[in-house]
Structure formats: structure tokens, C-alpha cells
Amino acid sequence: MTEAPQRQSDTPVERLILDRWSPRAFMPAPIAREELLAFLDAGRWAPSAYNAQPWRFIHARRGTADWERFLSWLIPFNHGWAQNASAIVYVASHTVTGSEKAEPVPAPTHAFDAGAAAVLVQLQLSKAGWAAHPVSGFDHDLARAGLELPEDYALHAAIIIGRQGGVESLPEYLRGREVPSTRRPLAEVAFEGRFPANPDADVT
Ligand SMILES: Cc1cc2nc3c(=O)[nH]c(=O)nc-3n(C[C@H](O)[C@H](O)[C@H](O)COP(=O)(O)O)c2cc1C
């Protein structure tokens, strides 16, 4: 396990949030279907516009028939490290809402809602001692086809899930990046009243 420095924030942000980060070093460990489903269940509790719950999680576990297929859509950079993970979850969302009887209506917040669900999944598994790394670096056309995703679903990202491994298991060029990243200061992203004319100016 990599001993990473603990992230700190200027306000009392929960450790659960600060301690989640996206490593690339994984141990090739199995994950039980029930355990993976329990993590995905956390995503089900995300808020969504009209409680439409547009997120969908399409998953494969290491050692199952789907595993190599799910890996194969990743770009080579991501495939290199993700092959040691335990599960891959592709996150999609329904771009329209409406019952089978009614005409479908565009769901403008489907991506926002799916992102919220994906974060809850990552927080839940991080709390349980697992690690996750979201990726959008995959061939979206191949993945859509392989997942047999209907046309009215958008495909956003995949969450690579596993047991964190030692940094020495990574190729040299990735080792320096195997640390929790920093964030922009709060003043660069939170604005009172209106968007600033010059958001990059020093706001103190
Ligand atoms: C939608 C999305 C796509 C991402 N795609 C990739 C990717 O293709 N490859 C990769 O190594 N990391 C990818 N990342 C991980 C980000 O680089 C990482 O979340 C970001 O640097 C913040 O670091 P942290 O998650 O460790 O806090 C992606 C993250 C998100 C949310």
C-alpha cells in the first residue's frame, strides 16, 4: 500500500471526502459480486432531477467472462494499470425521461445526476477500504457496442475498482504521479453574488 500524505483542507471537510483519491497501483485481487453490488447500491441514493435516477452501472469483475472485454476498450495508457484491478464499472445515463406510454422528454441533467451517483459509489468503496479510479480514456464507440447500450443512453466514464497496491508495481513513468492531487483554492471556484469579471485574479 502506498503511504500517501493525508490531504488537508482549510475548512473541516470530512475525512471520507479528503481520503478518496484515484490511485493506479492495484493488486490483482478478486471482488465478490455482492460486495461490488453493495458499492453500486450507494450510487442509487444520489439525488437526481425529478428523482429520475438516470444512472446505469454496467459492470464486470476480474476472473469472469466479461473481464477482458471490458478492459479491451480502455486506451493503452489506462489498460496498462487497470488490468490489475478487480472490477470495471461503465457509467451510463438515460438522456430522456418519460413512461412507456408518453413521448420521451430530454433529461438535461442526466450527466449531472450520473456524476453524483458515481461519486457516491467511490466514497462508499473508499470507506470500505477499496480504491477507485474513474476514467474516460476508452474507445467510446467500441464500449457502447460491447455494452449493447441503447441509443438514448449516454456513456460517460468507467470506474476502475481494486485493492490499492504498492507504487513499485507501476512502471517508472507512473510512480511520481501516484500521490493524492491538490485542488484549486476555494476562492477560485466559489463566487458570491455573481461570476467575477476576472475569475483568475487573486480574490482575498
Ligand atoms: C470523468 C473523469 C475522467 C477521467 N479519465 C481519466 C483517464 O482516462 N485516465 C486517468 O488516469 N485518470 C482519469 N481520471 C482521473 C483524474 O485525473 C483524477 O480524478 C483527478 O486528477 C483528481 O485526482 P483524484 O481523483 O486522485 O482526487 C478521470 C477522472 C474523471 C472524473
Radius of gyration, whole Å? 19 Å
Proportion of helical residues: 25-40%
Q: What order do the SSEs take from the amino end to the carboxyl end, as H and E?
A: HEHEHHEEEHEHEH
The portion of residues forming beta strands comes to 15-25%
- Supply the CATH architecture of the domain at 27-168: 3-Layer(aba) Sandwich
CATH class of the domain at 27-168: Alpha Beta
Q: How would the global form be characterised?
A: globular
Cα distance spanning the termini? 39 Å
Secondary structural class: alpha+beta
- Average pLDDT score: 95
Major sheet characteristics? 5 strands, antiparallel
- List of distinct ligands in this structure: flavin mononucleotide
Tally of DSSP helical segments: 7
Identify low-pLDDT runs: none
What is the CATH topology assignment of the domain at 27-168?
Answer: NADH Oxidase
Which homologous superfamily in CATH is the superfamily of the domain at 27-168? NADH Oxidase
The counted number of beta strands is 7
